[in-house]
Design goal:
The protein has about 250 residues and is of the alpha/beta class. It contains eight helices and ten strands. The strands form two sheets. It has a six-stranded mixed β-sheet with strand order 6-7-8-3-9-10, with helices on both faces. Strands 2-1-4-5 form a four-stranded antiparallel β-sheet, covered by helices on one side. Helix 3 (about 100-110) packs parallel to helix 5.
């Protein structure tokens, strides 16, 4: 599903005097249907990496294959279409439009898509029911809770049948109850919808819901842990590993 080969990202100042290597040759593979978390301390490069995967930013060198399409070689127009139709995003701050109802927010990626695509309302309703927001679909984002807004954002992320969903600190603005509900929902989408998920997080509890955790440090892939079905055991493994490297909280 996803394959990175020696991906590097160097930022150069406008006058060209200073350079900063955010990514220093990252290589890894995410299989179809996996739920992978990316962890690391502030400045480790994990957000830069997520931006590369989402085509929000471009690589300096290296290759990123998504379902065998090399997104590093796509032109701007193709990238825009690819980002809209093949990648779903879940952001920490929800990124919902307050002037639209929850239903309209979910439908937005289809309405903005190329061509004259019709919205499959049965699909919209099914996703809303699965994510527990069907009864509030006619409300506006400012009228519902943070957890309900994040579930709406998740529904919007999967409405176009993306190849992969990228989640950027999705529990960052949620309380503990809403965070747990969201993580259970992401697990549901991963298992029942078969959606591949890559989540950047600094939260050990959130990471324990994934199948595998990749640790990024100083722009490089430092290590990885794989879950053996037991989430509590996996949680303890992540804590123990972070303790050995001096912690990874931001």
């Amino acid at each position: 599903m996803l394959k990175l080969e020696n991906v590097k990202k160097t930022y150069i100042s406008k006058i060209g005097l200073n350079q900063y290597e955010a990514l220093k040759g990252i290589s890894f593979t995410v299989n179809d249907g996996e739920f992978v978390s990316i962890m690391g301390p502030s400045g480790s490069g994990k957000t830069t990496l997520l931006n590369m995967l989402g085509t929000i930013d471009s690589v300096t060198s290296g290759t990123i294959l998504v379902d065998q399409d090399d997104i590093t070689k796509m032109k701007k127009k193709d990238l825009a279409n690819y980002r809209r139709e093949k990648i779903g995003f879940i952001f920490q701050d929800f990124n919902l439009l307050n002037t639209l109802t929850l239903k309209e927010n979910i439908m937005l990626p289809i309405l903005l898509g190329s061509g004259n695509k019709k919205v499959d309302m049965k699909k919209v309703d099914k996703i809303a029911k699965d994510l527990g927001i069907f009864k509030i679909m006619d409300k506006y984002p400012y009228e519902v809770s943070g957890g309900e807004r994040q579930r709406t954002a998740a529904a919007r992320a999967i409405i176009t049948n993306p190849k992969i969903v990228l989640a950027d600190e999705p529990t960052g603005n949620l309380d503990s109850k809403s965070s747990k509900e969201l993580l259970e929902m992401l697990t549901f989408l991963n298992q029942e919808y078969g959606i591949t998920i890559v989540m950047v997080t600094h939260d050990i509890y959130a990471a324990s819901y994934s199948n595998r955790v990749l640790f990024i440090r100083d722009g490089k892939l430092f290590n990885e842990l794989v879950k053996n079905d037991d989430r509590k055991e996996f949680f303890d493994q992540i804590i123990d590993f972070e303790a050995t490297i001096g912690g990874g909280h931001e």
